[in-house]
Design brief:
Number of helices: 4
Structural class: alpha+beta
Largest sheet: 5 strands, mixed, barrel
Low-confidence stretches: 116-135
Strand order of the largest sheet: 1-2-3-5-4
Oligomer: single chain
Number of strands: 5
Amino acid sequence: MVTDAEWERIRRSLRFGQVLRGTVVKVPRPGAIGIFVDIGLAVGGFVDVLLLPEQEELWPGEGAVADFEVWWADSRQQVRLKPSDPRYLRKDFAEFTARFRPSWPSDVGRPVLVRGPATPDEPASPLDRQERREV
């Protein structure tokens, strides 16, 4: 756990689409949650199940080293990632992105915006809004 100030410093240094090499360190519930990735920062990375293939056997396993892109970073001390390798992405990623995060292509290269804490009424990530609809 890092201080809030350190997290803000890390977050301000990130850009959407920035490629980070990482090692998958935990796949807690394959097919249900997502994967945790060590990206060499003081905070960890996480790939949400919504970005991964439906078949969990296609997910990168623990110990796998791969490139990941910065997808989001909000008040949670965690960098949300998407796999760079299309083998590790959901089949319909382009359609998914067009529907739930149409700004993605234009976001790439822009700094991750610094926002206040996410509240239950105003989630910080577009994926959070989708997760709430599916629950």
